[in-house]
From TrEMBL:
Xref: InterPro entries: Aquaporin-like, Aquaporin_transptr, MIP, MIP_CS
Organism lineage: Bacteria, Pseudomonadati, Bacteroidota, Flavobacteriia, Flavobacteriales
Species name: Myroides pelagicus
Compartments, as annotated in UniProt: Cell membrane
The name this protein goes by in its record: Aquaporin Z
Superkingdom to which the source organism belongs: Bacteria
Length: 234
């Protein structure tokens, strides 16, 4: 059970730190952290969570990562569903905390017709800069695929495990630097679902993309890693 609690708390930390920075710190005139700051915040949550909780659960904090680990043979089928449930619960709990805090501001209003409402992900009219559904699907799939490659490589038996958290955290930072303007960056179904529950509107109807594209990217990478990249002698 400890590994499931670790996934719960790790995903909670990711959503609280990443989405929280986007909600409260990104847009303050003159002193806001902007896209770069939000990208760093997401990377830092994974980096710190990986070192704190990775030894317990592996530090997935993302259903797509767990699916990629399962397909590549690093996670058993008995653990897959409990991992995903723990991650979803952690993300939703964190989004609930953010929701309570957000509504306490004097001028904060959630308008689900605007891009990036409640730090959620979207395409088309809900994309930060108007990217369509094809662009959104492709970037979410490709970036998730490479995220899983970095995770699998950094945690391989032949890799220096002391630096795995740094590599993974910096990879997620880079991913956000690329795709915040396109989709507000998901690569994590739990992160998207948790925010959409509270923002509602068309964000709910667009969730299919932010669930299917990361999962497909994870499955592809799991297969590629297992049959093309992994050293069977390691």
């Amino acid at each position: 059970m400890k590994n499931y609690f670790a996934e719960y708390f790790g995903t909670f930390w990711l959503v609280l730190g990443g989405c929280g920075s986007a909600l409260f710190a990104a847009g303050i005139p003159g002193v806001g952290i902007g896209f770069l700051g939000v990208a760093l915040a997401f990377g830092l949550t994974v980096l710190t969570g990986a070192y704190a909780l990775g030894p317990i659960s592996g530090g997935h904090f993302n259903p797509a990562v767990s699916i990629g680990m399962f397909v590549s043979g690093r996670l058993s089928y008995k653990e897959l569903l409990p991992y995903i449930c723990s991650q979803l619960l952690g993300a939703i709990t964190a989004a609930g905390v953010l929701y309570v805090v957000f509504l306490g501001g004097e001028t904060t209003v959630i308008d689900n017709n605007l891009p990036g409402a409640f730090a959620d992900n979207g395409y088309g009219d809900l994309s930060p800069t108007g990217f369509d559904v094809i662009s959104a699907f492709v970037i979410e799939l490709v970036l998730t695929a490479f995220f899983i490659i970095v995770i699998l490589g950094a945690t391989d038996k032949k890799a220096n495990s002391k630096f795995a958290g740094i590599a993974i955290g910096l990879c997620l930072t880079l991913i956000h630097l690329i795709s915040i303007p396109i989709t507000n960056t998901s690569v994590n179904p739990a992160r998207s679902i948790s925010q959409a529950i509270f923002v509602g509107g068309d964000y709910i109807f667009q969730l299919w993309l932010f669930i299917s594209a990361p999962i497909l990217g994870a499955v592809i990478t799991g297969v590629v890693w297992k049959y093309l990249l992994e050293d069977s002698k390691s």
